[in-house]
Amino acid sequence: MKRAIGFLLAGVGVFLLVLAVMLKFYVVPSLAQAPLVPGEDTDGVSVSINEGSGTFLDIAASLAAGEATFREDVPLVNTRFTRGDVQASESAEATESNLAVYDSFSRLTDPEDTVMSGSTLRVAFDRNTSELANCCGANVDGQEVTFSGINPLKFPFFVEKQSYDYFDTTLLAPYPIDYVTEEEVFGLNTYVFEQSIPATQIGELEVPGSLIGEDAETVAAGRFYENVRRLWVDPVTGAVINGSEDQKQTLQFNGEVKAVVVEASLIGPDAAVQKTVEDTESSSNLLGLLNSTVPLVCLILGVLALAGGILLARRSADDDDYLVADDAEASV
C-alpha cells in the first residue's frame, strides 16, 4: 500500500514539474503577445489623453507687429487614437516575424478645439519584444523612415530595469530612455522611465528676418527640438500607464536661439490614467501569476511530492525486504 502511495505521489510530483515548465516556457510566451487590435473593448480603437499648457509663437501676429508675439499659457489637450491593421498583421511578411501593425493619429487642440498640430504614425513591431520593424508600410506622417528601437506606443512584455532605445517620432530615430524608479499608480506598481533629449536640429525653416530679429528679408533658421519625457510602465504587459512631456522647439540662427516656436508641458489626467490602470490590471496580474508565482509553486510542490514519493516507495521496498529476511530466518 505504501509503495502504491509513493508511486502515486511521485507521479503527481512529475506532473507538477512538467506543468511548471509548460507554464513558464510555452503558455506564458503564447499569451505575452500584443493584440492585433489594441482597443477590443472600445470598437477597435485605443484612446490616450494628455493635458497641460503651452506657449506658442503666433506667426501671423508676429508678422503684423514686426516682432515675435506669443500665445502664452494656452490650455492644451493631446489625444492619440490607435487602431490595429489586422489585414496587414496577418500578411505573410508580418506573420513570419510575429509582427503587429498599428496606425496611430495624434492631435493637439486648444480650448476652442482648434488643432494646433497633428501627426500620424504607422508602426510594425514584434508582438513580444516591441522591437520596431521596417515593413508593412511603416511611416511617420506619410514619410518612410528607418525604424529601430522599441515601439513608442508600448514597451516589451516583462520590462527590465534597464535603458531602452525608445523611438522618438520627432527625431525620427531612437534615443535612450532610462529606468529610474518604481512608483505606484492607482494601486498598480509601475516602472518609471525618463528620457532627456538635448536641443537637436530637426530641420530648417525659411522665415522673415523680422520674426527672429534679423535685418535680412528672409533667413534660413534652424529648427531645434528638445524634450524631457517621463513614462510610467506596467512591468508585466509593457503598457504605458501614464506619460509626461516637457517639450520645446526653437528657431536658431548663427548659433543663437532667436525664437521659441513652442514650449509645452503635458501629462495624463487622473481619470484617463485610472481607466488605463483598470484596463491593464487584470491581464497584468494573471500574466504575472502564470509567469512567476504559479510555476514556482508547482516547482516547489513537484520537488517535494517527487522526493516524498520516492522516499515512501523506497521505505516500503526496504520493509518488504526486511519481512522477507525475517521469514527466511524463521524457516531455518
Description:
With 332 residues, the protein is of the alpha+beta class. It has five helices and twelve strands. The radius of gyration is 30 Å and the shape is elongated. Residues 317-332 have low confidence and may be disordered.
Short recap of the structure:
With 332 residues, this protein is an alpha+beta fold. The protein contains five helices and twelve strands.
Task: Based on the model shown, name its key terms.
332 residues; 5 helices; 12 strands; 33% helix; elongated; disordered C terminus
Question: How are the SSEs placed, and which strands pair?
Answer:
Blueprint lengths: L1 H30 L13 E13 L1 H7 L4 E15 L1 H4 L2 H5 L2 E11 L5 E12 L5 E2 L5 E2 L23 E5 L4 E13 L2 E21 L9 E16 L6 E14 L2 E12 L2 H62 L1
Antiparallel strand pairs: 1-2, 1-12, 2-3, 3-4, 4-5, 4-6, 7-8, 8-9, 9-10, 10-11, 11-12
Q: Using only CA atoms, what is the Rg? A: 30 Å
Q: Uncertain regions: pLDDT < 50 for 5+ in a row?
A: 317-332
- Mean pLDDT over the residues: 87
Percent helix: 25-40%
Order of helices and strands: HEHEHHEEEEEEEEEEH
Number of discrete helical segments: 5
